[in-house]
Amino acid sequence: MTQRTLVLLKPDAVQRGLVGEILGRIERKAGWSITALELRTLDRAILEQHYAEHVGKPFYQPLVDFMSSGPSVALIVTGERVVEGVRALVGPTDPIAAPPGSVRGDFGTVVRENLVHASDSEESAHREIKLFFPRLA
Ligand code: IDP
Ligand code: MG
Predict the structure, then answer these.
(1) Is pTM, for the whole model, over 0.90?
(2) 117 lies in which domain range?
(3) CB of 124 closer than 6 A to ligand 1?
(4) What is the rounded distance in angstroms from the CA atom of residue 86 to the CA atom of residue 44?
(5) Which of 114, 123, 128 to mutate to test the pocket of ligand 1 (most atoms within 8 A of CB)?
(6) CATH number of the structural domain spanning residue 8
(7) What integer pLDDT is reported at residue 17 of this predicted model?
(8) Which of 20, 76, 95, 124 could form a disulfide with 36 if both were Cys (CB 3.0 to 4.6 A apart)?
(9) How far apart are CA 106 and CA 96, in angstroms?
(10) Please, which pLDDT band fits residue 61 given cuts at 50, 70 and 90?
(11) Which ligand 1 atom is at minimum distance from the Cα of 87?
(12) Whose CA is nearest to atom 3 of ligand 1?
């Protein structure tokens, strides 16, 4: 089942020089491809739409501040079961609870600065690709 998913390497990943490490893990999965890639500082208007489900939660405003604080890498990954697969590669939201071997488990300690966003369903992937790469939606 070939799918597409939207991945963001968050400002902490770019600032810490972990882009190559994380992209390498994605590239090495058999049959997966990076089909769009861009370094960009995300603007608040896009982030407010992207994180609309979290409006009103205590972490929402600091999250938008953090996500707009410096450049991120936005990409589309295409391949077999990439929606579920990239979420597994990234690990659970809390990096301390995330298993070693996952990106968050290997490199993160702080929940907000957990290095990567990945779409959580095919429906989210469709919406997020439209938001970040409208010409490819
Ligand atoms: P996800 O990125 O694993 O899908 P979500 O629950 O959708 O996690 O939360 C979106 C992002 O908001 C997380 O990746 C993390 O950066 C941040 N976040 C989530 N929960 C908390 C929290 O309790 N404290 C601080 N930041 C949080
Ligand atoms: Mg989420």
Answers:
(1) yes
(2) 2-136
(3) no
(4) 25
(5) 114
(6) 3.30.70.141
(7) 98
(8) 76
(9) 9
(10) very high
(11) 3
(12) 93
The one-letter amino acid code at 67 reads: M
* Residue 60 pLDDT: 98
* Structural domains in the chain (count): 1
53 CA: nearest ligand 1 atom: 7
Q: What is the pLDDT of residues 7-47, one digit of tens each?
A: 999 999 999 999 999 999 999 999 999 999 999 999 999 99
Residue nearest atom 15 of ligand 1, based on CA coordinates: 112
Active site residue 117: yes
Whether 121 lines ligand 1, by a CB cut-off of 6 Å, is no
> Residue whose CA is closest, atom 5 of ligand 1?
93
